[in-house]
Amino acid sequence: MPDDATLHRVRPYGDHLDDGIVQLGFTLPVPDGAPARKAALQLARTMGLARAEVVHQQQLTPGFTYFVLYGTCTATVDFAALAQEAAGERHMSEAEVDEFIDRHIGRPVVAVGASTGTDTHSVGIDAMLNLKGYHGHRGLEGYRGFRTYNLGSQVPNTVLVAQAIQVDADVVLVSQTVTQQDLHIQNLTELVELAEAQGLRERTILICGGARMSEELAKEIGFDAGFGRGTYPYHLASYVARELSARLAARGAARVEG
Amino acid sequence: MSPPELIDTLDGAARIAFVGLAKNTGKTTALAALIPELDARGERLGATSVGRDGEATDVLNHAIRKPALCLPAGSLVATTQPLLDASGVAHQVLACTQHRTPLGLVVVAELAEAGALEVAGPSTASGIRAVGELMLAHGCDRVLVDGSIDRRGTAAPSVVDGVVMATGAVLSTELETVVRRTRAAIDLVQVPVAADPRLRELARTSDASLLVTGSYEAVTVPSDVLLSGSEPAVATLFLAHPAARYLLLRGALCEPFVEHVLRAHRTGPITMVTTDTTKIFLSRRGRRWYAERGIHLEVLGHPRLCAVTVNPVAPRSHHLPALLRSISAELPEVPVFDVLAGARASR
Amino acid sequence: MAFSLDLDEGVVSSCHQAAETIAADVSSQVRDHTTVSVERAVARLLGVDGVDGSDVPLPNILVDQIRARGGLGRGLAYWIGNAMLHTGSPPARIAERVAAGELDWLDLPQAGESLIRSAVTAECARSLDVINQHRSERTRLRESLPEHPRPYLYVLTATGNVYEDVAHSLAVADNGGDVIAVIRSTAQSLFDHVPYGPTTEGYGGTYATAANFRILRAALDQWSRENGRYMQLSSFCSGLCMPEIAAIGAMEGLDNMVNDALYGILYRDINIRRTLIDQRVSRLVNGYFGIVINTGEDNYLRTADPVTAAPSVIASQFINYHLARESGVPDPQIGLGNAFEIDPATPDSLLLELAQAQLTRQLFPDCPVKYMPPTKHMNGNPFRTHAIDTMFNLVTILTGQGIQTLGVPTEGVFTPHIHDRVLGLENARYVSTAARNLRDEISFRPDGIVQRRARDVLEQAHGLLQETAAATLFKAVEKGIFGNVSRSLDEGRGADGIVAADDRYLNPYLSLMREPVHA
Question: Is A38 tagged catalytic?
């Protein structure tokens, strides 16, 4: 196991510490042959892989060659610093969330969710909101501290915003599956813009989720938070409860018991 | 790097937003290029961004490098404390705002020395407005706002006074398409301002959206009809008010609604007035296409379009050398600049 | 045959009977109605195409005008026929003049009914002759070239740009794929019109347009001639334009179409009656021109738990089958659907999949069942997905499936990159070679897990079918029996496009296409 010092300079692990072994696969739009192999190796070197070797090479179709390479990664990452950043975040359980909401917000949190755009399936948002939940973790519908509205799939942004206004939502949850060409970005950005235009942005927490969503991407687009693979309803609930409470406190409207 | 002319187009606009039509159009480059020019003229600068910008690499594409913001000593910056600390640039925090970002609360700090740093400001339009006003109140002559992808909300007239739009080859491999899309985007920003004083008065005194007749009688329109009304609902609205000539919208103008209006039986043309261009959500058709069919758009106000910058290079993809000239020809009314070469396009 | 399940033939025929009842009931409900899409398909078959200055397709202009005047119940053929008699022009020319505002075609004096009928029927027959001739040429081409043995490898591609799709399709052909299907832009199924012209931008896929079909068809035909193997082209009918896309596909030489009776209702929120009317005519068109249709039972296995939803899949197959037969589609053209979607963590999942796959094959022995690879439980680990795809490929070969959709390692993460498709094809070919004769060497243990599972699923499917037959399909959909999705009769898009046929409704294609036809 790495000791504290090496946690500041972590490299990939093949079969012993610090060996830096990385496996890579990619296609070059070039004809198969020795020059192609050299090109792949050179590319691997510029990617920071030392002692790169091509273990497999094949023509996919004339003009396209596929490679599998191995190499040792010369770069390192400071894991200790990252771990420290995340140390403050501990998620609450369902019971803890309900109690937190009781104590700091004093009323159910209104959440409206949907899978927007043209995504056919609402598997993601159902997992977060519906009673049945996901892998044994109940969705927000089952929490005492939440009142939820799941609009399902293929919901246009305009309908989602209209509903959020109607029920005076505290939080809007959007789920998007990624297709190619980053289609989801345009649709998600439009939601943020629409919320702004309707004067909703200030008083609503906007969250987006999906298998390829990340905190980074969510921020970039203008959401308050993003949740990706591996998210369970209680992660979401913890975040929403804390965030809403902090906002209400900032607005001076929270009811805090001693 | 940046020509004197670009800086002149800013004129008296105190708060300027840099908005890109897509990622990698060079808007941050344009902003970064202006900083030393403004500094050289003795202006004290404030800087912020919508979301997280000035990062070493593109969030969506790790191979693309983006410029960090280099700011002179004495500049103000609205960003988060962790990013200030990580930059290593000496600074003094002037104010802590209540604007929460996933990276923490936004603070306004004064840089004690020149340096490069990542800037992550508020992610809401009202947050940007607030920090802009705060920085002006603390003595800035100019506030530069770096937009994020296409967050047009940051270019609203209450938030900024001038806009620099960035376009580039990244929009398409075809020159024609880049030019066409740029034109459509500029059209949206340059929507005519509603001049009719009675309409403006109606807009000023009402909180709700209004359908107005030629003789200025007004009836309220519920927001859910405007947002998500069905075609029959919209048709009914216009059947009930055949004398309607204007629609004053408080919130967003959405394309499905406009399409329903197009198909509704009307007795004449209709003019839709929004508060500003950030409320207009037309993506399938442009303003001119609807105008040809009797639907006209106006706004109550919008910030001045100062200039358009062009990036003829699409990173790792292609290069359109004729782009600058084509865009200039297409937009005779706006100053156009090559963001990297620093040359004003010849006319 | 050693490798087969012991099925209770009494239960099987009872399932067929129930499904026939269901299909007959649907027919009686939809028989006297038509839709805007059906009538637009009539226009297209008569040669009307193109768009006006506002990008509105001419078939839409014609149909919308008739509908606005309350005359759609008579059928577009009636009005076109009348206009033909008065102007002496063919339908395409009439449409152009109407779109240009030069012809008040609905105000023309109405000729005698039998005169109209014979004029337009002759025109319809002529149009079919032309299309049939092209299709005969295609059949000759196909018969002159060898094909891979079954299962046909069915590969999806979609870049949004039809010209890039051509490049990807040729790569697939080079690597042994048999059927190319270009996924459509996601929003297309909700359009009440078919876009026009070649397209280079589309979100989540490429638009299905006549021009795009033509471009892909030409490229594949050229490859077929140069490489000595016939490449098939497929697309998707589902949505608000099922009959039109079926017509366009026939005219542009497609071989295969995804066409499910319930998909649009359940997953696109299209009105039940609208889809059932549209599917009936679209399948009439597909069937008449020799096009294989694929149904979408795989969807039920994604929105509901695959182990418990299996009976609804079998029930849907029976229903899709009989609805297709009602439209005159013969068995060899009914590619019913099935998928390998059980959670890999389930013990004996392989045996359960085997039971389902073999059951489907045995129940519909003459149908080229389309078997689809796992998607729901694929988590982004390409190596795991590739391993599970190998098991899917094994079941495909063991049960002798007709059409096999290709599994690719990046399922659930990306639409496949160029090497992912090749890796998937290599996997499929390896398994089909390695296990070539396995099916003739082994048999199922009597009363073992597989046999019992198949029996259970069939019995439950039987129950569902009887329940549905008693309640009608409409009620069953309302109860959410299929895929756990519930829809009610008056819900959904496109209901306003349904029109009751009046007693003089004219659509010669309906009877012309019932006659057995081409070589």
Answer: no
